[in-house]
Write a structure and sequence with these properties.
This protein is mostly helical. It holds the Pfam family TPR_8.
Length: about 775
């Protein structure tokens, strides 16, 4: 009966499968096979908790079943129940002491539990039992020895020397030897090893850093004598490795003053003459030093002027450069001035480059990037569209163009563009992007829908990203067996540690921020609530508008269903479960907007970040917004305290503190004594024994001296919250940003934030602000009427 159920499960007949397996269990509750099969069913449904219970029941009746123990250990690793995993692996080791995988699995269990010294003992005992070690190293034995070395700390070098002749990965052996010798202070031997590594790969900057430390030339600040020695070292390597780009570029990091100008002049001329498109990317890290930035600018401006007149890098005309030298110089200057924020000058140079050679795709892409930084999203799309049309076979340019379209909220054009590189044999090509786990598209599309107020579609995209991360978690299951069998142990442990931190990835953080914002919007303005456009309307007018919106929604649903039917009629037969057979049942994402607990759904996105990304300030900012709306003041306070710990000067923190104080004041009569005592304990720390008006006034004075636009925006919102009837004060504070002191922080992003703040205050001066903003950013589409 149980085996018949297992066959049904493989035929995707889940109900019949469970029915037969449970019927088999009822016939014999002591059958380890029936319990094992039921566990396999639960495992196939990703219900690991129930599956492990079934395996444990099976082991009660068949304690020494190797297969059941192995399957149980896989589930325990998947769920990260490490103590139970270690115990199960010990049982397997007792049953199969001759099996290398069993020994290694126990060592890995100890390492993941934070007890690497016990893992070392396990591997040492195993290696002592080996009698016939092959004279020529084999891969699996080699990987086990290197993994053993990873677990060692103090005796690592001695162990490394003893295993060298049995290891195939020679480069790793050399890297580890150099690292250990340097840590032990055996500098001469470490220097020899690093030089040997540089002979193999002279472009590896980590080897140069190691060699520099061996020679006693470490540290960020070098004396004139140390600087001379470092540059002399690089000159030596340049003679030995004339084709290495790293040995030419790295001296720029350490040289200063006239020496820097001389080396930069030589390097820039060489690269511009060759026509290296990535030249600016290679050296922009030097711009942290304003003197170096200024020196590079003067050099390249001089090249451009000289190349215009005499086709050479200097006015002597002694060496004539190819025509492309001027082209790449203009390209460099365009990127340089764009990086500095001078978009007008950057556009002048890139337009000159395009006039010079109108067939290079990179120039149109760079012009699009400059226009994006200038705020002209429509112009940026047009420029990327020109680049795309020049090379229709380039997937990267097509994807970049799609991203720019999404940022300009041109959704229809973006979808039409991106499907050029999806499979053409399916009814809905956009589904192929989901199958390929194309997260960048889901994120950009979700953020675009959110900007346009399409909450359902936005949530659908953000949930797609969450599903991808869930898939990554599930996909590791097969590797628990595979990596032990193939002995790829170092990579396996690295993967397990990565999976444990998976949801701290920036893509998940972005998706969580977007989803939380959507659910907060649903909580603040549930479907059917009055919208901004209903302000000032009579009840009859509101009813008429709602009816109109309902009809439009029904029409959209009907059109979607008609498209679905048409696609089903034209679609060729496909295998069940294939990508082509899947039909989008909810194209508008309506099921996500019909949730009864939007804040609870938001918390599902937040919880992984609180566990894995607690050092990111965004985690606690989102937590505050959710907990304040749930009226959980202690959790909101906890989020505030963690935000202060990470960055006490964060811009929006002041606004959140004021909102917290107002929420406490509002709920003061209903606060429980223990909650109030905890809040009172931290009150003086948060507000410095000042009332809210004094607290905000002090905040404004401090930030006027600094000239920080984001902090002034936060203060203006706080003023409007404290005294809603005096919003003119908040407006005046926001308009003070046009003063000279705010010039450095008056970026396009911050000016747009001011506009959004005025809109949220329902200010009558919104148009006045747009007119002023256009003076600073005449190309920005955000300020056009």
């Amino acid at each position: 009966m149980a085996m018949k159920g297992l066959f049904y499960n493989h035929m995707d007949k889940k109900e019949e499968a469970y029915e037969f397996v449970k019927k088999g269990l009822r016939l014999d509750l002591k059958s380890h096979i029936c319990w094992h099969v039921l566990g396999l069913l639960y495992r196939s449904d990703k219900n690991y908790e129930e599956a492990s219970k079934c395996y444990i029941n099976a082991l009660k009746f068949e304690k020494e079943s190797i297969q059941i123990l192995r399957d149980l250990s896989l589930l325990q690793m998947q769920m990260r129940n490490l103590e139970a995993y270690m115990e199960t692996r010990h049982n397997l080791l007792d049953l199969c002491p001759q099996n290398r995988q069993c020994w290694v699995a126990v060592a890995i269990a100890y390492q993941l539990m934070g007890k690497p010294e016990l893992g070392v003992k396990v591997l040492t005992v195993y290696e002592e039992t080996l009698k016939d070690i092959p004279s020529t190293p084999d891969y699996e034995h080699s990987e086990m020895l290197l993994y053993h070395n990873n677990l060692l700390v103090e005796v690592a070098l001695d162990h490394l020397e003893s295993i060298t002749k049995h290891v195939l990965d020679y480069r790793t052996i050399k890297e580890k030897r150099a690292k250990y010798l340097l840590a032990l202070g055996r500098l001469e031997e470490a220097e020899t090893t690093y030089r040997a590594l540089l002979a193999i790969n002279p472009d590896n900057t980590a080897y140069f850093e190691g060699l520099r430390k061996c020679l006693g030339l470490g540290g960020d600040q070098l004396t004139a004598e140390e600087q001379g020695k470092v540059l002399e070292l690089f000159e030596q390597f340049q003679a030995e490795n004339p084709r290495s780009n790293a040995v030419k570029r790295l001296p720029l990091r350490y040289a200063t003053g006239e020496v820097f100008v001389r080396i930069a002049d030589e390097y820039l001329r060489s690269m511009l003459s060759k026509g290296l498109p990535s030249l600016f990317v290679n050296i922009k890290s030097l711009y942290k030093d304003s003197d170096k930035e200024k020196a590079v600018e003067e050099l390249v401006l001089g090249y451009a002027a000289s190349l215009d007149k005499s086709n050479s890098f200097d006015h002597s005309g002694s060496s004539v450069e190819p025509p492309t030298a001027l082209l790449w110089t203009l390209y460099f200057l365009a990127q340089h001035f764009d990086f500095k924020g001078n978009t007008n000058q950057a556009l002048e140079y890139i337009n000159r480059a395009i006039e010079h050679t109108p067939t290079l795709v990179e120039f149109y892409m760079t012009r699009g990037r400059i226009l994006k930084h200038a705020g002209d999203l429509v112009g940026a799309v047009e420029s990327l569209d020109d680049a795309k049309e020049m090379d229709l076979q380039d997937r990267f340019i097509n994807s970049k163009c799609t991203k720019y379209m999404l940022r300009a909220d041109q959704m229809a054009k973006a979808e039409e563009t991106v499907v050029r590189f999806t499979r053409a044999d399916i009814a809905n090509p956009l589904n192929d992007l989901v199958e390929m786990q194309s997260q960048w598209f889901s994120l950009e599309a979700g953020e675009s829908h959110l900007r346009q107020g399409q909450i359902g579609k936005a949530l659908k995209r953000f949930h797609q990203v969450e599903k991808h991360f869930q898939d990554y978690t599930e996909d590791q299951f097969d590797f628990h067996t595979y990596c032990l069998r193939k002995m790829t142990l170092r990579a396996y442990v690295s993967m397990v540690k990565l999976e444990d931190q998976l949801r701290s990835h920036p893509y998940y953080v972005r998706a969580a921020q977007g989803a939380v914002q959507c659910y907060i919007n649903l909580f603040d303005k549930p479907p059917g609530a009055d919208t901004e456009e209903m302000e000032g309307m009579t009840e009859a007018e509101k009813k008429k508008l709602r009816n109109k919106q309902r009809k439009a929604e029904l029409k959209a649903q009907q059109e979607a269903e008609e498209k679905k039917k048409a696609a089903a009629n034209t679609e060729t037969p496909k295998k069940v479960g294939s990508a082509a057979a899947k039909v989008d049942e909810d194209p508008e994402g309506i099921k996500h907007t019909k949730t009864e607990d939007p804040l609870g759904e938001a918390l599902k996105f937040l919880k992984p970040l609180q566990e894995l990304a607690a050092d990111r300030i965004e985690t606690h900012l989102m937590g505050f917004e959710i907990y304040l709306r749930k009226n959980k003041l202690l959790l909101a306070l906890k989020s505030l305290l963690k935000t202060i710990k990470i960055d006490p000067y964060y811009a929006t923190l002041h606004e959140q503190l004021v909102r917290f104080a107002l929420a406490v004041k509002k709920a003061e009569s209903s606060l429980k004594p223990n909650v109030k005592s905890v809040i009172d304990l931290h009150w003086s720390t948060l507000f410095k024994d000042q009332d809210l008006e004094e607290f905000t006034s002090a905040f404004v004075k401090a930030n006027k001296k600094v000239g920080s636009v984001p902090h002034i925006i936060s203060a203006a919102i706080a003023i409007a919250l404290i005294r809603p009837s005096e919003k003119s004060k908040a407006e005046t504070l926001l308009f003070s940003i046009e003063e000279e002191r705010y010039q450095k922080t008056r970026s396009l992003e911050n000016v747009v934030l001011v506009q959004k703040s005025l809109k949220s205050l329902r200010s009558n001066r919104l148009q006045e602000w747009k007119d002023r903003a256009r003076v600073w950013y005449p190309r920005a589409t955000a300020f056009q009427n």
